[in-house]
Amino acid sequence: MNQPAPFFLDCDTGIDDALALAYLLASPRADLVGIGTVSGNIDAAGGARNTLDLLQLAGYPDIPVAIGAHDPQEGTFHGGAPHVHGDNGIGGVELAPSDRGPVEVSAAELLVQLAHRFPGELRVVAIGPLTNIAEALRLEPQLTELVAEITIMGGAALAPGNITPVSEANIANDPEAAAEVLAADWNVTLVPLDVTMTNVLEENHRQELLASEHPVSQALGEMLGYYFGFYIDIFGRACSAMHDPLAAAIAVRGVEVATAPKVRVQVDTTTGPSRGQTVCDLRGQYLGFPDQRGARCRVVLEIGEKFAPHLLGTLQAAWLSEEQVAEPVT
Amino acid sequence: MNQPAPFFLDCDTGIDDALALAYLLASPRADLVGIGTVSGNIDAAGGARNTLDLLQLAGYPDIPVAIGAHDPQEGTFHGGAPHVHGDNGIGGVELAPSDRGPVEVSAAELLVQLAHRFPGELRVVAIGPLTNIAEALRLEPQLTELVAEITIMGGAALAPGNITPVSEANIANDPEAAAEVLAADWNVTLVPLDVTMTNVLEENHRQELLASEHPVSQALGEMLGYYFGFYIDIFGRACSAMHDPLAAAIAVRGVEVATAPKVRVQVDTTTGPSRGQTVCDLRGQYLGFPDQRGARCRVVLEIGEKFAPHLLGTLQAAWLSEEQVAEPVT
């Protein structure tokens, strides 16, 4: 990737989604060509509104944002995670409303359109439930060939879950869609809790964002105040997991993976206690996690460097060098 | 436990079962008062034969051995694991046949009898599928109060499974029975693959057994030759996991546990990809695994010392000091 590659982001913005979005905008390796939203941390329409507002604040109001599925394949949307992300999805931070609205097509339709516009090149980063991606696979069975690769924040391999003892929120919110996406014949990189819970942002990182002169960094720092509050019960201190931005950084090869075997992955779609689990075949653990023959899903268990400095450095470098940054909306 | 406590062993002998049996006979903290067998590594009748032969070789022919369930609660016995334990269950090693036969009662009946004989004192070590234990709970609903505690070798908490990506053999061989036993209101210690796969016996330990003058140690060393062969594909070298003897050692407090939170544990009894999984709620990982209020199942994730030296030392000390050792049967 010497030239920036075209990226499609599917998200449920969400505080860590906002960080992932900012990272993709900032990374010199990514050209963000479209965004879909799905219900997860907040409903799909609310996630689109947050995304549009962030894009305007960041100076990229022209990137198309498409609203995707409101409900998962089975059942109805549960109402989001206000205890984690706040009632408005971004920790109660008030952004200036964007002048733009979402595009007319659905998130799945936008993804299919972009896959045809960038055949063999488009990279997908999916950081919400996989409802839209599964819908796109049904709309366009060639999608698996048109898309270069897909990176998914989701699941728990050997780490505990965060919704149930063994399931993670993005997968648990639509296990049927996740099962379709992970069974499809394409190059998948799964970024599970195993690696997102062990690469955290601390209070000094948040202070660094707040001290930035860039309004997006300031807003992210404010949002993280809310997010850190949720994580006190999990980590015993004010800090946060870095689920979505880590997936984005792995997708753009901004951070290198250290342990990421290609193994068989099956999603539990039963109604039993393991519903929503990503059943990853990691029985090769004692041999150092060799790849399994024929498996196309790479499960990231470890990265090769500290993530927070890379994330903050990427944002800072972009804001310093950029000329297209919008004036703070006041 | 200053006085040796009465122990009931439920097993499917089995090479590592043979080690657990030898350990319980050797430990000054355990008084082995009865043994049940269940189909697992080998069928229940074959396991009883191996157990009787080992008891005679060790000089304890009077400990009652009862044959338990041949089939799991659902379906039929799958035929054992000859690729792991050999066709005869003990790596093809030929022991002199015992003069004794099994007792007339079933394993579950023997357990209930002994629980009444040692009320509040009897400790159970279950190192096979839990079919007999579940049957005993049905025979005698007071069993949970009569038994002081039960230690189970089984399951996989955060480690990969050994039968499927998430299930371990003892639980996977009878998930319905395991669900009953783990849902019962008694003090359970679960010794899962997390700790049995990380405490291994190496070739030098096996040589130590072979060099012993005691026929039981010699026989164990020979059996382990077969077992080590199976584990080459798992560990990349000739060595072996120490599933059953480690559970026995934890049960008698021969080794101390280092990380063993009391948490909710549910067995997956669906027909999905997680069938047979022990779903342990270890979401407290990032706080150092605190106990969960009301949970009575202790899940051992780490022990506080090296196991192999303790195991070999216990056998050696017993054989050296003992006067009741039988003459080698030639």
Explain what you see.
Chain A has 330 residues and is of the alpha/beta class. Chain A has one domain: Inosine-uridine Nucleoside N-ribohydrolase, Chain A (Alpha-Beta Complex). Chain A contains 13 helices and 13 strands. Chain A has helices at 15-26, 44-58, 82-85, 107-117, 131-139, 143-146, 169-172, 175-183, 193-196, 203-210, 215-235, 243-251, 307-321, and strands spanning 5-11, 30-37, 65-67, 122-126, 147-153, 188-191, 200-202, 239-241, 257-259, 265-267, 278-280, 297-299, 302-303. In chain A, the strands form four sheets. Chain A has a seven-stranded parallel sheet with strand order 3-2-1-4-5-6-12, with helices on both faces. In chain A, strands 7-8 form a two-stranded antiparallel ribbon. In chain A, helix 1 packs across helix 13 (307-321). The first copy, chain A, is globular and about 50 Å long. The model of chain A is unreliable at 323-330 (pLDDT under 50). At the A-B interface, loops of A face loops of B.
Topology (SSEs and partners):
The structure is a homodimer.
Chain A: E1 5-11, H1 15-26, E2 30-37, H2 44-58, E3 65-67, H3 82-85, H4 107-117, E4 122-126, H5 131-139, H6 143-146, E5 147-153, H7 169-172, H8 175-183, E6 188-191, H9 193-196, E7 200-202, H10 203-210, H11 215-235, E8 239-241, H12 243-251, E9 257-259, E10 265-267, E11 278-280, E12 297-299, E13 302-303, H13 307-321
Parallel strand pairs in A: 1-2, 1-4, 2-3, 4-5, 5-6, 6-12
Antiparallel strand pairs in A: 7-8, 9-13, 10-11
Helix pairs in contact in A: 1-2, 1-11, 1-12, 1-13, 4-5, 5-8, 10-11
